[in-house]
User: Fold these one by one.
Assistant:
Number 1:
Amino acid sequence: MEKKAFVTRELVEEITKTYPTPFHIYDERGIRENAEALREAFSWNPGYKEFFAVKATPNPFLIRILKEYGCGCDCSSYTELMLSNAVGIKGEDIMFSSNDTPAEEFLLAAELGAIINLDDITHIDFLEKTLGYLPKTLSCRFNPGGYFSMGTDIMDNPGDAKYGFTREQMFEGFRILKAKGVEHFGIHAFLASNTVTNEYYPVLARQLFELAVELQRQTGAHISFVNLSGGIGIPYTPDQEPNDIRLIGEKVREAYEEILGSAGMGDVAVYTELGRFMMGPYGHLVTKVIHQKHTHKEYLGVDACAVNLMRPAMYGAYHHITVLGREGEACDHKYDVTGSLCENNDKFAIDRMLPEVKTGDYMVIHDTGAHGFSMGYNYNGKLRSAELLLHEDGSVELIRRAETPEDYFATFDGFDIYKKLLPEKSG
Ligand SMILES: *Cc1c(COP(=O)(O)O)cnc(C)c1O
């Protein structure tokens, strides 16, 4: 599918009068339409809830939009819990799906009334010692080991993943929890990431629904929900077909009726913890070409770098690039698009075919709405960019200001670098 930017060159030129590049910008309309489509796709399940994976895009202005569509939050750290609570998503609208969890994080999760999703059987004891009790509702994360495959395609390698209980541990864990007075049980699994296929959720759902039936039969634990977690992907490359969420919902419904319905477990709620699917396509990193370099290769130097978007440097991930104002031109020039870090992997694209680019052109780096800004860091003393929201009426709102050097130096208590380094005023 052709990838089109949701901003134009004219709009970006207008925005940069107030907010200089680089910045991340989010498309409110796209976020809303997608959230509504997800809600409709699972509306057959009365208990259905999406717990947005906060780590993907931890911005309260954006999470507040999702809240209007009934979304809760999936948190995995202290500050993510705080953020969720601050936007008014509380209690059982928070799923705390963490791992290697510090005691203080379990304490805050319990204090907020979040549903706790245990990553390991030893965490039963740890949680009980930490809280002094066990909550009435608990979930356990399942890891079947081996490879997760669909037909002949290997999708991912759970056997090599640090997460979750083994199958045997699920049964043992549920027996222990039940004996300790837990009343409502959940099952969670995240077995493949960024799946651009309509089959992942239905295949996963089938496995988890069957496990739910066995667990309930063998342990007597009442299964309240099955959490399909994240993993529905987005088409980063133009040749990929986007997932059809309506079809995915429908196929999960078929598995639900076949397996849970016929086992008399038609009261089980289906939960999701999508991150990438909710926000990925609705964010752009906007950057300006500030240098062109002609050496052994042709380089375009832009004013963003890997601290603004780590995925290409970290995973070699493809992110599509549109040169704004040149959408109609032939892509007959080959470039490496680089940032300014002292790291040779700081490249947004390698050997990318683009139109002939002029210094001063603006570029959109696509699909940065999830795991984009949030994976940012401060290497080379680079500062985090602003985040902007493009409203449906075309207006633009600053939803997080850019960092300043003062922010960067703020944690050196008692050593006021920022003030010392300010140029002395003469006269
Ligand atoms: C990262 C994560 C998600 C979201 O994953 P996406 O690929 O963004 O959908 C959901 N649940 C858990 C526990 C995660 O770690």
Number 2:
Amino acid sequence: MRNLEKLVRPNIQRLTPYSCARDEFKGREAHVFIDANENPYNTNFNRYPDPLQEELKAELAKVKDVPAEYMFLGNGSDEAIDLVYRIFCEPKEDNVVAIAPTYGMYKVCADINDVEYRTVLLNENFQLDADKLLAACDAHTKVIWMCSPNNPTGNCLERKQIVKVLKGFDGIVVLDEAYSDFAQERPFRYELPQYPNLIVLNTMSKAWASAAIRLGMAFASPEIIALFNKVKYPYNVNQLTQKQAVEMLHSVQKFQQWLSIIITERAHLVPAVAELPICQKMYPTDANFFLVKVTDADSIYHYLVERGIIVRNRNRVELCGNCLRITIGTPQENCELLSALRQYRP
Ligand SMILES: *Cc1c(COP(=O)(O)O)cnc(C)c1O
């Protein structure tokens, strides 16, 4: 890996971060807080929230088995994605390399930050060729983006190829594991000590049933986490979110029940859809959704909309011609989808 100082944008390296009232006062006993111009009357929300979310990180450390010092929490994973660009990529000068197809936000954030976004197509099985990815990099490549299980394809990338990228690239490697709870593969967040250039993304939006609270995570070396903390908005995760997230993390049992129902439903729904006459190809999935190539994606998409069922039409995405991406719903919702698809006539 190149020196972290060489990878970080010079202005970020030099930056003196904003020091908020809650940063300057740390720990000691106190009972009069007149340092932050807050309203003193207790509404439960009159005080600024903890800028570093210590209680929430302690809960996450138990659930995720990652030490709190290796964690950044943000307003969804989307905040972490944007921060990666703002920390490492000099606009108009640096570039990033990403697999394709994949999650759309990596490119949107590259465009917003005016950073060149290079793509390397996955193969016909949506697998990654590490050598091809590495060959697309040059001296100005700061970041490689990968996602496993990948969205919209649903599959895990081969572990050997991911490791080859991690070992072969001297910049930052982001691995988005938003869907790892639904997969059998061992998550890469456990391998952080081995790979100082690795950033793993997680979210409460999928398996943890909390998309509305907007809580995303980046797991990385404490040195990289320090950079995230330097650049983020001081109070980037609000009090309602921190409180609700802690509450959800206490419901590990409910989480595991949902997970097991969704995985069981996936095992029933995927082969049932694969047998329909409209199915051209069913792709293997390790996520809470599946990608299916159908006879006419646009027509089936609109047919389902008419019946009040919304799936994701990926017809215009590279390598995904005539593909629909379908999330595993409740057993009842999955039945309704299946029965609608059975009644479809071209
Ligand atoms: C859904 C999803 C996310 C979640 O983003 P949030 O901003 O945390 O809701 C992240 N990455 C991928 C690949 C996703 O599909």
